[in-house]
Amino acid sequence: MYNVRNVTKDIVWVGASDRRLALFENIFPIQRGVSYNSYVLLDEKTVLLDTVDTGVAAQFFENLEYVLGNRKLDYLIVNHMEPDHCAMIGDIVRRYPEVQIVGNAKTFGMMQQFFGTAFAERAVTVKEGDTISTGKHTLHFVMAPMVHWPEAMVTYDDADKVLFSADAFGTFGALNGNIFADEVNFDRDWLSDARRYYTNIVGKYGASVQALLKKAEGLEIAVICPLHGPIWRENLGYILEKYQKWSTYEAEDTAVAILYASMYGNTASAADALAGCLAERGIKNIAVYDVSNVHVSELIGEIFRVSHLVFAAPTYNGGIYPIMENLLSDMKALSVQKKTVALLENGTWAASTARQMCEKLSELKDVTVLDTQVSVKSAMLANQREELEKLADAIVTSMK
To answer: Contact, 9 vs 25, CB < 8 A?
Structure first.
């Protein structure tokens, strides 16, 4: 059964959701699934904006056939060549042999790589500022390189003031009938997945996102249509403000997240005791995570969110506990910046984790590591309580 919804009078959502997929990009857990958004513009000419992943192809084509009816498809615009959005290009060409494919020069280079052809006989190559008129709608093409692939672009419809934003403003999570952000409690139910999606997939490319945001300032936008997750037609300032913070690596919240690794529970006990000390000093909404039991993508999302971090880990084979070391490496890969960090180490005979974590953190931009640190030998005993209190004081002072 077809399942479509109008975005505007002339623009129809024809996407689909996948609730069976366990790992997005075979990396990121998606317990709530994911949507693949695709859109049709019905004007004197018909336009399909992006396709979908193979996993939802049957639903997508049922939707597309219903919306087009007996009309031919004139254009397929490829804003992003990642396979979860471009997988159906070959099938579109076979079903709609008159279709023209619109993309930029890099789009068609990647198309050749994926499909063994760039569909030269039907290719329409566009660049920054080019337009296509479909009747009463004019589509403007804006290049968005490295948000988050080099060929990415966005398409702006000046009639309905709609920005088709490719992977920008997307989020994990299947759509449950409510395809608009104003139809759901986005802050409660979607924000953490939106942040996790941005920080892990786009997060490294903050400068590129900033460049796109500056271009968007010159457009009168009423609706944002991303390729994943809810469509924005109200309160656009909410998601734009989040992207402004995330892309400039500013913390959303002045808050503390304690991230610990613990082999036998002793480092975990010290981390919990520190959380208690912070709570006694009036710090609210403290987050504590066992890095061995929480997926790194969720940890990265929280690291972007908060202003202050505590890393607590044992020394392992003379180095940093491996899962903690992996997290620190991921932070570097994703360009985490502008954090204040406190360190707590554990070691039965040769604790050296704090020094090594500090070396790792020195590779990040605008990260301040507090001088006050705590070193535990095997287990934190009562005589070290004062050290823990001093570390809590140093964290609180740095938050003022």
So the answer is: no
Which DSSP letter does residue 71 get? P
| Residue 219 contacts residue 157 (beta carbons within 8 Å) | no
- For residue 88, the 8-state DSSP code is T
Containing 392, the helix (H) or strand (E) segment is helix 385-399
Round to whole Å and give the CA distance between 245 and 116. 40
Tell me the C-alpha distance between 159 and 164, whole Å.
13
SS3 content of the chain, % helix, strand, coil (to 5): 40, 25, 40
Residue 228: is the preceding peptide bond cis (ω within 30°)? no
Mean pLDDT of the region 176-183: 98
pTM for this entry: 0.95
192 token code pair:
């953490």
Number of residues that this document lists for the chain:
400
Q: How many other β-carbons are positioned within 10 Å of the β-carbon of residue 388?
A: 18
Token readout for 120 is 């030269």
Band (pLDDT 50/70/90 cuts) for residue 331 is very high
CB 268 within 8 A of CB 262: yes
Averaged pLDDT of the chain: 97
